[in-house]
Amino acid sequence: MSSTMETAAPRLVDAPEERASIAPVSGTPQLQLVNVWKRFGDPASPTVAVRHVDLKIQRGEFVTLVGPSGCGKSTLFNMIAGLLAPDSDGSILFNNVPQPDGKLLGKVSFMPQRDLLFPWRTVLDNAIIALEVEGMSKKEARARAQTMFPEFGLKGFERHYPQQLSGGMRQRVALMRTFLFERDLMLLDEPFGALDALTRTKMQHWLLQIWAKHKRTVLFITHDIDEAIFLGDRVIVMTSRPGTIKCEEVVDLPRPRDPSLVTDARFIDIKRRLLEVIEEESMKSFAATGAH
Ligand SMILES: Nc1ncnc2c1ncn2[C@@H]1O[C@H](COP(=O)(O)OP(=O)(O)OP(=O)(O)O)[C@@H](O)[C@H]1O
Ligand SMILES: [Mg+2]
Fold first, then answer.
1. Which residues does the UniProt record annotate as the domain ABC transporter (predicted)?
2. Do 62 and 40 sit in the same domain of this protein?
3. Which residue's CA is the closest to the ligand 1 atom numbered 28?
């Protein structure tokens, strides 16, 4: 496979203009977390992973989440996805309706931190896993998935196996699988974490176009501050573990977003403020681990 093919993010044909304005921040939230906690281990001396998280996400928003490693970001996603039950202190609501334990599974589409592609399944059959689990026939699921291959830059790779793909392509397969599981809310846990800077920039631009086209709400975890600002309507900063929300920055920058935005004075200003709080948090976790 040529290196160009490996690094190039797909171009969208007939892509709509990315939304021109940020989502409204009032009205009934699509997702609401109220006093959410998660403790692991011995109840007498638990590891508190997530502490007192209150969060509201409006329909159609693109919200990015940053915070030191180990602060509980993935744990938070696992709870929203229904893979982990939150402790009994708080609740998670969809469209104002509290979701009891066990009722969240399948309500959101979730791309976990590791791409979790099955090596023994073709790309096409990896893409349809969630649809199959939902009860759709393999034939129908394959037919539906097939239509998305061009959009995700994977046309012609349907019968390849994951180990025959580049890192960027594997991540697009995982993203395509997440999009195919059509839920209004998508959770993306460091989807571009393993990519080189150039591919990553292309993928960010492409994701914004896909987001505009499919009109989903996105919650996106990243360690890259530029990425968080470039993509988000809001950037939420978590504290070091036990993780809670430290602050948020509204990114009131125009859409469609252009890569040159990173040199804009407003972008740099937001980045400076975010770096200050993130630096403060990393110093705390550094001190807590006793590192020098
Ligand atoms: N199933 C589990 N059992 C016990 N402890 C866990 C479990 N899952 C997570 N933890 C702990 O909870 C804390 C938060 O982990 P989590 O994976 O949510 O962090 P993170 O913010 O996603 O980190 P990173 O940025 O490195 O991905 C860590 O201390 C981790 O060891
Ligand atoms: Mg994580």
1. 31-265
2. yes
3. 70
